[in-house]
Amino acid sequence: MRLEDNSVGYYDRDAAAFIRRYDALRFEDVHSGVLQFLPTPPASILDIGAGSGRDARALAELGYDVTAVEPAAGFRTRAAEKAPNVRWIDDRFPNLSSLNNDRRSYDFILCSAVLMLVQPEDIQVSFDAMARLLAPGGKIAISVRDPVSNEPAEIFHRHETNRLMSAAATAGLHVIDAQEPSDALGRPTHRWRSLILSSENL
Predict the structure, then answer these.
(1) I need a surface site. Which of 14, 55, 78, 162 has the fewest CB within 10 A?
(2) Which residues make Cβ contacts (< 8 Å) with residue 172, sequence separation at least 6?
(3) Spatial separation of the C-alpha atoms in residues 163 and 169, rounded to whole Å
(4) 90 closest CA partner among 50, 130, 52, 135
(5) Which of 87, 85, 23 is nearest to 55 (CA)?
């Protein structure tokens, strides 16, 4: 069983509580460092690990053509009901097989709070999959944090920033911005790192 299978069950078991927590925050507050890098609507945006659909909904309301990927049915079913104008897909890291078979490309990819659920040996494959889906000149926004003490070690993994940057470079992506944003829920134990990647060396 892959880690992603374990993590899907972890979130599905208490999907309603997770949704309440995530939807209590606004997209622009959680992703304030991302806003300046968004393309002009109606560009195509891919939200990987869309969870409650909060970000996908907000982006669709801004006029973007949004595709949301979420493997946890407890999230995906509820989120799709709230955002019928978003294209919802059951897919997962590391390969994102359904998306790759779809042969679409995206001007912007949002991968928020997902990579810590990916096994270390699958990080490179995950970056390669995102790079294949990115349109020329497109950008990827990644946010990741370290596991905290009460989280299952078999589900949450630490990925050093230099490892993420190396995987991005191997996939042909360039780091154009790096930040350490504070936790939007005010949790001092949750230390975030964010990267903006581009298909071009700006």
Answers:
(1) 162
(2) 131, 199
(3) 10
(4) 50
(5) 23
The length of the chain in residues reads 202
Please name the helix (run of DSSP H) or strand (run of DSSP E) that holds residue 197, with its range, or none.
strand 192-198
Tokens of 152: 């299952």
Alpha carbons 197 and 202: distance in angstroms, whole number: 10
The H or E element spanning position 175 is strand 174-179
* Pairing outcome for strands 87-89 and 65-69: parallel
> What interhelical angle do 73-82 and 3-12 show, nearest 10?
60
> How far apart are alpha carbons 101 and 122 in whole angstroms?
19
Walk along the chain (202 residues) and give the pLDDT tens digit of each residue: 344 566 766 666 666 667 677 777 899 999 999 999 999 999 999 999 998 899 999 999 999 999 999 998 888 988 889 888 999 999 999 999 999 888 899 999 999 999 999 999 999 999 999 999 999 999 999 999 998 888 888 889 999 999 999 999 999 999 999 999 988 888 888 989 999 999 987 6
Cα 89 to Cα 50, 51, 102, 108, 173, distances in angstroms? 10, 12, 11, 17, 25
